[in-house]
Batch of 4 targets.
Target 1
Amino acid sequence: MQSLMHSLSRFALVLVALATVAMTTPAAAADKLRVGKAVPEAFSFVPPDVGMRNGIFQKSNVELELTAFAGDARMQQAAAADSIDILLGSGPAMAFIAKGSPIKGVAAMAGPPLLLAIVVRPDGPKTVADLKGKTVSVSTAGSLTYWLVSETARRHGWGPNGINIAPMGAMPGQIAALKRGDIDGTIMDIGNAFDLEKKGEARILVRFTDIKDFHIHVIFATDKAIAGKPEIVRNFLKGWFETIAFMRSHKADTVKVAKEVMEKDEDISGRVYDELMPMFSDTGRFDKAALATLSKSYVELKLLPGEPDMSKLYTEAFLPK
């Protein structure tokens, strides 16, 4: 009996020692991933902030370092300079890959272009038909916003040049030009559009709800990250889609973060949530019809001389099973 008690005491001491080691051994450091957002304020790029603040990416052992850029082109430059690993950009940005950009699409992030709208002054054009021959500003030539305005003209039978398109750079300058009457309309994200409408400074004229076969956003990874950090890229996408699921069932938590990122009030942030959550993909799978639309757009935007082989521009190898 005494021998048994002695053995149990020794066993208990071993357990205590193991517990002490477990408590004093530092946890393995999370894998850091540098993530770029094409623009800072759009709701489309809120998921990383939501996921980090709710511990979702941390569960996949990924720590995100977020950087926002002034458009896809600037973000592409950062990727080429090895300043970022992951790019949250537009579907049209897949054309950069065909031009030699060292990236590849790894997930179809969002479908229809619900994020954007054409906005006019309160006393501006009353219907879409009134835009024929008018001037609408966009960010840059060859951009997603440029294509959407051109596509609006084409769909109304005016040809791709039926609306005069004015590339004007950053949004504050476009809004100022609209207020001065230098342009008849501008295309912007609906967060800003809702804000201007609420202030009585503008009116939403066109939404792009009729464009179904599209990938407005794509998640890219650099070739270097794919080769050197494949498991981290995979864990990032796992965290991303867990975050999208969380956002769908936690509106209040999502809106709280979105308010800060978009710098909009709770009412507008809530409206944006309701409008845009349907566009996010739950799987990241690329759609053939959407890819065909993008392929044609590259030629229409004169980004490429001919339609590329889209299968070479993306991979689904890193998507959650």
Note: The longest helix spans residues 2-24.
Target 2
Amino acid sequence: MTSIHSRLYQIAEQQGGYFSAGQARQAGLSRALLTYHTRQGRFLRIRRGVYRLAEFPEMPHADLMVAWLATGGRAVVSHESALLLYGLTDLLPAEIHLTVPRTASRRRAGVRLHTARLSEEEVTFRHGLAVTTLPRTIVDLIRSGVAEEWVYQAVRQALERGLVSEAALQEEARRRGGQVAATIYSALERYHAL
């Protein structure tokens, strides 16, 4: 039994103490044991199918973790929610934005699901969460019609903090073309004009 708890702890530790019922099953914990440990206070049930180890304190961005786990772990934090994870906005999005494969697009309250196929190069991890890379996040923001000032602010802060290189943004602009390229090049021009 200790090896099961050890496996579950290793999963949850990387996710701020959170885990899904599916991850508990993968670690070897039966539904009956999951229920037992929840009743005993060892696990806290956060919402249907999502739990937290009781000894872990609430983490920053817990709402993102819970939404990500509830979506089945195939989701990637994106758009305005990705900006929040990167610390590039002070505004809290009205909804949690997740990008999911086309086959996983069920509605969830308070969560905005975007469907797209993301390559491995477009996904990274921050705070235990899968999140779109900064260049992909910028592309998603432009395509979703976010105010250009948000894009300019995100590009400026990301460059100043060394979170993304100018070359990576230029490469993304060349690859995407159109409005995406125009907005990225405009943001880079404004950055150099400061």
Note: Strands lie at 18-20, 43-47, 50-53, 76-77, 96-100, 111-115, 123-126, 129-132.
Target 3
Amino acid sequence: MIALFQDLVAIQREIYLAFADRIGDFAKTGNWSLLVAYLPMGILFGAVHTLTPGHSKAVLATYLTGTTASVPRGLAVSLVLSFVHVGMSVLIALLSLPLVSVALGSVGRAPLLEDISRGLLGVIGLWMLWQGLRGAGHAHGQGIAAGFAAGLIPCPLTLFVMTFAISRGVPEAGVAFAAVMMIGVALVLAAVALAAVLFRQQLLRLVAARPRAVEAATRAVQVFAGLVLAAVAANAFLDT
């Protein structure tokens, strides 16, 4: 496992350094062909980066396992998470001057946004817990809210790429790379969402002959998922 993680980090480093060179060349020449030919590597970069620890994969899987979300809705939640996760980094970089004293702490982190994300996830977890205990149905809009909340924590590598591009006077190059990188992020998170939803559906299918067992299992999983999300949020606040 450690070797795999080291390999993923090495791949990211190679792609990042190569793209940094392309940004430098683009800043000197303004030739988009220097970037466009290399942009597809951003998809691989995003996918490999998302395979490393973090990026709310566990939160996404836990949430979808504990809800009644269908495959399309699960994929929609993963897409929202991906867009917000990468998009927040782009916005932070582009609006760095007014935001730096409010949101940013150490390099690659946004403590204020992280606290907001944890707080929202904690609220969603408590709501899921309440729904599970009282046997209420799942609110459809909650999935999008969960994806948005989990995605509020910005992607540090996107922030690094954006910062580097802005420092070279070509923010458009960073935005272009972030856009294709988001495709790779979305592919991995979509796979996580698909696996979580199919796992839950298969579990319920196994006990489909017993309606009461299905209802009990659904409520139990929802309660468990709510507890996990609330505990993750609480633990994150205690560690800060």
Note: Residues 97-108 have pLDDT under 50 and may be disordered.
Target 4
Amino acid sequence: MSVTHTRLGHHGVKVSNLCLGTMNFGWHTSEEDSFHIMDRALELGINFFDTADVYGWGGEAGSTEEIIGRWLAQGGGRREAIVLATKVYGTMKRKANRPEPNSDGPGLSAYKIRKHCEASLARLQTDHVDLYQMHHIDRDCPWDEIWQSFDVLVQQGKIVYAGSSNFAGWDIATACQEAARRGRTGLVSEQSIYNLENRMLELEVIPACRHYGMGLLPWSPLAGGFLGGALEKHDGGRRTEENFAARVESKRAQLQRWEDLCRRIGHPPAEVALAWLLHNPVVTAPIIGPRTVEQIDSAVRAAAIELDAETLKALDEIFPGPGGEAPGAYAW
């Protein structure tokens, strides 16, 4: 059991078709278990690891990068074996910091990009990041300033590729056109929410990624657990949070059809949800966030599932998308 490897969009680097998301590390998952998950990922062929400077919920921003850094510091070829991605945009709140100046709030200023990249490298205990992603669009900062900052980091050998996250289709187009004007590669990937329940990306983001040769990295592929057998877990008493229960009850009929379909084809819902994403040629790698080693094994099984045309049609009926791509979804 192992994953396959594919190019990141139309670019040269090859990554696993599942990306290990680390947002749970140090929060839902202990450091020891996080180490086991990363080791297991490598054993299964997952070489694409994603994090962000602000991750560290339940602790302080940056603590997730520090956990990854301590794992990398063990050596054994770990750093050389992975394509490492992190992000910049958010405000870093750390106990040891002096009060942050206003210029270091959320955004993509040259000042912020330089400082936060250096800090991420220190926490990750590495000299470079393979994919440095803008965690959100900053429409108040000129693209000349943003791309110049990324150019400097590339020239210094501190980053290899640039990516985006949570960009609109027109933001992707603007970023790529501005990079082309500078004679630069531009964005190689977009990371955004995409799953059977939330298909809004199909309107404009997916067409933009296809046009510019970018790989799509869907986060929340299970819609916060909604697509991972939510009805069965709720009714069986395994998930009792008030918000989760209300969500399940509001969509019980849809969930019943979904979980019945998964039983008919003989695969767990979480695996079918991942398999549906992987059937889309624009998707390079869904970002999985396992809390246990067992969950990462399940995700890898999903990568081997092939969904036939009848099943895909049934999924479209249960979870209808926005009507196709713009403008055809709402005009002629």
Note: The CA atoms of residues 128 and 158 lie 4 Å apart.
